[in-house]
Design brief:
The protein is α/β, with parallel strands linked by helices. It has three domains: 61 residues, no CATH class; 81 residues, TusA-like domain (Translation Initiation Factor IF3, 2-Layer Sandwich); 91 residues, 2-Layer Sandwich (Translation Initiation Factor IF3), CATH 3.30.110. The protein is 35% helix and 20% strand. It is built from 13 helices and eight strands. Strand 3 and strand 4 form a beta hairpin. The longest helix has 11 residues.
Length: 272
């Protein structure tokens, strides 16, 4: 398989599962790739170049480790992506106008070090952003997948690489892109009307008992196997806002119907 800096980590693993251990051996930061839950969430969004930036290493380090597995990087010359010095980018005007009380701070370094997924903490913190404040995430690497997800939801970001193992990333709301807008934008049909359209061609799952990010992983797994003539009926605790951009990328529409304080019905399908 020919690879480049833009090749997704998920494509490498799909081509040869041994790529997991090869990448994990490059840098201790990549050891989390062995966790199947985190791998499912991260690998599909992160390219070799993204991973190199996260790990503070070079794209060529990946090529070297992957070559014995049959991956060919060709003869292209690509820049070293290692960054270990503080980023020299002017502070955005919005951040410069905020006082200390308007910046929410979340340190997830300990979670990363102990192998815990901080996704739930981050998601809860993001929900507090209202256009007048910002969220500072302190991490050991640049959270590339999170940046991609939030950018599609109307959030700006600014990253400062403090040192090899310390990265500050700020997020703030640029436009009012809410979950409701994404859910209702696909079509004019109501939830019940869309449900009737599929009749018996419904696959049902209940993810209320799962901890984050397993509901999202479970839903995406089901959608990968969903025939085009069927719809996925999901019983969830809430509308999964971080899942919505991923559904859009995959061409799915979604309808939601609240059934109670902690119970929401979702209908996910591809329009024909």
């Amino acid at each position: 398989m020919n690879i480049a800096a833009t090749t997704k980590i998920s494509a490498l693993i799909k081509a040869n599962p041994d790529a997991i251990e090869a990448i994990a051996s490059i840098n201790r930061r990549f050891e989390k790739l062995r966790n199947p839950v985190l791998r499912k969430v991260l690998a599909s969004r992160v390219t070799i170049a993204d991973a190199a930036r996260i790990g503070g290493c070079a794209v060529e380090d990946f090529y070297e480790k992957l070559a014995p597995l049959g991956f060919n990087s060709g003869n292209t010359t690509e820049p070293n992506t290692m960054q270990t010095t503080e980023t020299k980018i002017a502070l955005p005007a919005f951040l410069s106008q905020l006082d200390e009380a308007q910046v929410l701070t979340l340190d997830v370094c300990e979670d990363i070090a102990t192998g815990n997924d901080p996704f739930l903490k981050i998601m809860a913190a993001v929900e507090q952003l209202d256009g007048s404040n910002a969220l500072l995430i302190i991490n050991t690497f640049e959270p590339t997948p999170l940046i991609s997800i939030l950018a599609k939801r109307g959030y700006n970001y600014y990253t400062v690489v403090k040192s090899e193992d310390l990265v500050h990333t700020y997020f703030w709301l640029q436009t009012a892109v809410g979950a409701a807008a994404v859910v209702t934008a696909a079509a004019e049909l109501s939830f019940d009307e869309a449900l009737q359209t599929y009749g018996q061609n419904i696959r049902k799952i209940d993810v209320r008992h799962l901890e984050m990010p397993q509901p999202m992983v479970t839903i995406l797994n089901e959608l990968e196997q969903l025939p085009p003539e069927e719809a996925l009926y999901v019983t969830h605790r809430r509308v999964p806002q971080f899942l919505l951009p991923q559904l859009q990328e995959r061409g799915f529409s979604i309808k939601a119907k609240e059934a109670g304080p902690a119970e929401v019905y979702l209908l996910i399908y591809k329009e024909t």
